[in-house]
Amino acid sequence: MKKKKSPMDLGRRERQIMAFVYQHGQATAAEVMEGIDSPPSYSGVRAMLRILEEKGHLRHRREGPRYIYTPTLSPEEAGRSAMNYMVQMFFNGSVEQAVATLLELKRTDLTESDLDHLSGLIEQAKQQGR
Length: 130
Prior knowledge:
By secondary structure, the chain is mainly alpha-helical. Helix content is 61%, strand content 9%. A two-stranded antiparallel sheet has the order 1-2. The protein is elongated and about 55 Å long.
């Protein structure tokens, strides 16, 4: 029986495997083993993929003797879920505080184009709020 997905129910190795699967869109146990740093044994990788499937983060299909694992959520959906959790957990539900913190962290990395895009999103949000 699959549990409800939570971005915080993953251990370090599980996050590493999920990042690999998201980056490639799908993966077999052998591909995960080859693609992550200091992997556990092949049976360890297979066990972790099974656990991620039980937790509801992955699903598989069979192609010949191989299981091919894919995420159950799109990267965008997973990102929204993780951000929602972080906003609730660390910013008391305040999107404003979360955005302000992100802007402070990335202040020097933002280009004029990035800032224009963010300004446009803010204007769009203002219009939708009216």
